Amino acid sequence: MMSQDRTSFIASLIVLVTGVLWGFYWLPVRAMVDRGLPGGWGTIAATAVAALVLLPVAWRRRDEIRAAGPVALGSIAVGGAAFALYSIGLVYGRVAIIILLYFLTPVWSTLIARFVMGWHTPALRVVAIAVGILGLLVMLGAGGEVPMPRGAGEWLALVAGVLWAVGTTGIRAKSTLGPAPATFVFALGALLAAALTTPFFSGWPGDLAAQADAGLVAIALLAGAGWWGLSLCALMWATLRLDPARVGILMQTEVLVGALSAALLAGEHLAPLEIVGGALVVSAGVLEVWPVRRRRAQVASGR
């Protein structure tokens, strides 16, 4: 059996690697578009692969899934739906802006926790809300326009962040499902959301048999099994073993990697005010988890 320190180290490394990996997720999404799967069809393909890969495990753990209850299962599925909308948003918007809009989740999580769940809201989380909303306004108004999301991608990312906040609140309150079956339910929720959303933005991708070359199939398999399957299953395992503050801070690597990779590989550069707004959004994410971290540190030190 691994020691607590070793387990924490491995779990932290998994979260860090997952953040980096998802920072590059836009690459397979757009590669599938380039190879003939427009809009959200690539997301449908990837989530279908993930569900199929995880189906044998889910079947073996079907009693556990059945016992989880509708609220827990619904919350996990909503989380998957959030990821699906985020994935589709990467097709229609600039990568860094899409990621940052999605990472406004701490603002929505805090509001839901306070006004829906009735949970105590530390002062720093109120500050996090203000900082996050200020970052949103600065980022969206950087060009002198009214600070509103522009285009389908930005709206999808914003809605995805709200859905993720709803899903994670329910998961935190009700779910006891293990990582593998939870990832299966997550993938099903994502698949359903992608299937319902995609037709509103793009039509049927034509002759799939003619377009589905080996490269497209390989990308869909990699995105589904790698990103949606293995990485999310590992992340769910890791988050059960770490302080939420550490998870939240380590996952900020997704923002950095996504912004840098998009700038270097796709030529998507942020304006100075967009960078300022993005920094405020990231700061809101750190502030949202900081009270938890500090409180636990005080308990550990006996203060």
UniProtKB/TrEMBL annotation:
<dbReference type="Pfam" id="PF00892">
    <property type="entry name" value="EamA"/>
</dbReference>
<feature type="transmembrane region" description="Helical">
    <location>
        <begin position="185"/>
        <end position="204"/>
    </location>
</feature>
<dbReference type="GO" id="GO:0005886">
    <property type="term" value="C:plasma membrane"/>
</dbReference>
<dbReference type="InterPro" id="IPR037185">
    <property type="entry name" value="EmrE-like"/>
</dbReference>
<feature type="transmembrane region" description="Helical">
    <location>
        <begin position="123"/>
        <end position="143"/>
    </location>
</feature>
<feature type="transmembrane region" description="Helical">
    <location>
        <begin position="271"/>
        <end position="290"/>
    </location>
</feature>
<feature type="transmembrane region" description="Helical">
    <location>
        <begin position="71"/>
        <end position="89"/>
    </location>
</feature>
<feature type="transmembrane region" description="Helical">
    <location>
        <begin position="155"/>
        <end position="173"/>
    </location>
</feature>
<keyword id="KW-1133">Transmembrane helix</keyword>
<keyword id="KW-0812">Transmembrane</keyword>
<feature type="transmembrane region" description="Helical">
    <location>
        <begin position="7"/>
        <end position="27"/>
    </location>
</feature>
<keyword id="KW-1003">Cell membrane</keyword>
<feature type="transmembrane region" description="Helical">
    <location>
        <begin position="95"/>
        <end position="116"/>
    </location>
</feature>
<keyword id="KW-0472">Membrane</keyword>
<feature type="transmembrane region" description="Helical">
    <location>
        <begin position="247"/>
        <end position="265"/>
    </location>
</feature>
<dbReference type="InterPro" id="IPR000620">
    <property type="entry name" value="EamA_dom"/>
</dbReference>
<protein>
    <submittedName>
        <fullName>Putative permease, DMT superfamily</fullName>
    </submittedName>
</protein>
<feature type="domain" description="EamA">
    <location>
        <begin position="11"/>
        <end position="140"/>
    </location>
</feature>
<dbReference type="InterPro" id="IPR051258">
    <property type="entry name" value="Diverse_Substrate_Transporter"/>
</dbReference>
<feature type="transmembrane region" description="Helical">
    <location>
        <begin position="39"/>
        <end position="59"/>
    </location>
</feature>
<feature type="transmembrane region" description="Helical">
    <location>
        <begin position="216"/>
        <end position="240"/>
    </location>
</feature>
